[in-house]
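B., you asked whether I could sanity-check this one before it goes into the benchmark set. Here's the sequence:
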Amino acid sequence: MDKLQIDIEAICSQIEALRRERQQLSTGAIAPAGDSPQAIADAYRRHARETAQVSAEVKGIDDAIAALSAQLNQKQQLSVNLQRISPMEQQVEEGRELARGHAERINELAAQLSGEVKELKAIADQISPSYWQVYYKPFITGFKSISVPYVRSDGDVWTIVNRVV
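And here's what the prediction gave me:
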């Protein structure tokens, strides 16, 4: 909850900084550097270039403010929802998030382990006949029952199963 509040405050301060920056950007009045036609044309061209650049910066700032405002609304809504949740429900949700991270890591490790086991089995299959002839015993045994854990969820209940490699 504290991290959420810190995020909300950071977004608010960033929006305020962008609004101040936007106010500082302005296009000045055209001031021709003389009365000659060339000076007047140059002044208008320079003003058009500066106005285009400032307009692009203002557009970028407006887009950033809009994106941050949407993010702020989302986080404020989440904050309101969390305030309605009981402390026990909040603790359960935090635990689920931690568990989700561990489950993802277990599944990544299981996939890596599965690959390693398959590579080991391929090597064993390749050298086993020669190994028998040299050492009179098997190189590796037990490949028929090798499995790795895998975590799956239907949304409410999580299940750890063993996948045979």
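One thing to flag: DSSP finds three helices and two strands in the chain. Otherwise nothing jumped out at me.
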